[in-house]
């Protein structure tokens, strides 16, 4: 069964540094998402992306965050000037078009900011 | 308004028993209610989902019951097995038939099924 693939599985970064989290969505999917889960808390929506544009973003997704689809397979989340509170599990998800298709999640990247 | 409240936070069930997890929401615009299962070190995996035009949906041992007037929905796991031990998240979304939608998750329920 096709899977959403995320790399790296764990990223350790110094506070203030930039980090890029990578995702390969399922190949025929058109809609892409990032969610995050701070340890012990619920999964929270960050951003959705379709047709090379952001569709929706949450209050969490401020100017330090950006997303990009640099080629036909990758979908990235960049965090500029990371803060301690950015430490979390970041999940990528994707779904097909055609109305209300379920979102499929990757196994996440654990981001630790020191 | 956008919150989904989930209970209990943790649940211990004997093998063969019924596990019941409850969720409540406020926003009546929500039109899609999935349940996700998450094992340690893995991402959430869709288990079952329901829309508000039906009151119940069953897939194998998993059943969603939906009460639109009470704005509540629940997951029932029949004949619970140790392999069902995982964290379960309810979620809700306003989809309006679109391809892109954001999920609002509950806080999760850690289920332990003991032999």
Please, could you describe this protein's structure?
The complex is a heterodimer of chains A (114) and B (115). Chain A has 114 residues and is mostly beta strands. Chain A is built from no helices and 11 strands. In chain A, a hairpin with a 5-residue loop joins β4 and β5. The model of chain A has no long low-confidence stretch (mean pLDDT 93). Chain B contains no helices and 11 strands. At the A-B interface, β4, β5, β9 and β10 of A face β5 and β10 of B.
Keywords:
heterodimer; A: 114 residues; mainly beta; seven-stranded mixed β-sheet; 11 strands; 50% strand; B: 115 residues; globular
**So what's the overall shape of chain B?**
globular
Gyration radius over CA of chain B:
14 Å
Mean pLDDT value of chain A = 93
**How far do the termini of chain A sit from each other?**
36 Å
Mean pLDDT of chain B: 94
> Helix/strand/pairing class of chain A, anyone?
mainly beta
Category from helices, strands and their pairing of chain B:
mainly beta
By DSSP, the count of extended strands of chain A is 11
Helical stretch tally of chain B = 0
Q: What is the multimeric organization of the chains shown?
A: heterodimer
């Amino acid at each position: 069964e096709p899977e959403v693939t995320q790399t790296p599985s764990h990223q350790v970064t110094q506070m203030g540094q930039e980090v890029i989290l990578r995702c390969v969505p399922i190949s025929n999917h058109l809609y892409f998402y990032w969610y995050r889960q701070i340890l012990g808390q619920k999964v929270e929506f960050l951003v959705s992306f379709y047709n090379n544009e952001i569709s929706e973003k949450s209050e969490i997704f401020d100017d330090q965050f950006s997303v990009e689809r640099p080629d036909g397979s990758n979908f990235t989340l960049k965090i500029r000037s990371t803060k301690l509170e950015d430490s979390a599990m970041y999940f990528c998800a994707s779904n097909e078009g055609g109305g209300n298709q379920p979102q499929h999640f990757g196994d996440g990247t654990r981001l630790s900011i020191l | 308004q956008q919150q989904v409240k989930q209970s209990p936070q943790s649940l211990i069930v004997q093998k063969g028993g019924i596990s019941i997890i409850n969720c409540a929401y406020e926003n009546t615009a929500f039109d899609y209610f999935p349940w996700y299962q998450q094992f340690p070190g893995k991402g959430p995996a869709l288990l079952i989902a329901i829309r508000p035009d039906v009151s119940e949906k069953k897939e194998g041992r998993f059943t969603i019951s939906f009460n639109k007037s009470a704005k509540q929905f629940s997951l029932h796991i029949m004949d619970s097995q140790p392999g069902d031990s995982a964290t379960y998240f309810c979620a809700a979304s306003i989809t309006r038939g679109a391809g892109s939608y954001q999920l609002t998750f509950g806080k999760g329920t850690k289920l332990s099924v003991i032999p």
